[in-house]
Amino acid sequence: MATMLVCDADLVQSGFYPAEQSQDGTLFRWVGPSPLATIFLPPLNMPLEIRLHVHSAFVPDVLGRVRMALDGGTWAQAVLLEQGGTTQLRACPRPGKMQHLGTLRLEIDTLRTESPRQRGQMDDRALSLALSAITLRPLA
Description:
Order of helices and strands: EEEEEEEEEEEE
Radius of gyration: 15 Å
Number of domains: 1
Strand content: 35-45%
Number of strands: 12
Shape: globular
CATH class: Mainly Beta
Largest sheet: 7 strands, antiparallel
CATH topology: Jelly Rolls
Distance between the termini: 10 Å
């Protein structure tokens, strides 16, 4: 059975800006200012499929190059899935040996960020991808 985590103010994480809400009511968080972000997940059975639900991509050319790792394991290249007007990044990283008080540590590498100010906007933040949710599905 899949577990879905909403990228809201309650998400236990680092490497994200505070939660925002789009005009249609979707909650999301931007990865930044670094292109590396961490999310602490509940313990789940392995192997695990992870899907990042992309709300927006400020740096869209990184979508096909995002990587994920679990608990210090090797980086897994995410596969870009675009269907029905949604964008998801899917990976099945193998967990490493690090453990954090009964949680899993998901690391996301979006490779780079850019500031909207570089494009003539007023926002000074360094942004990469805005994530709205994360789906976790044990494969066993």
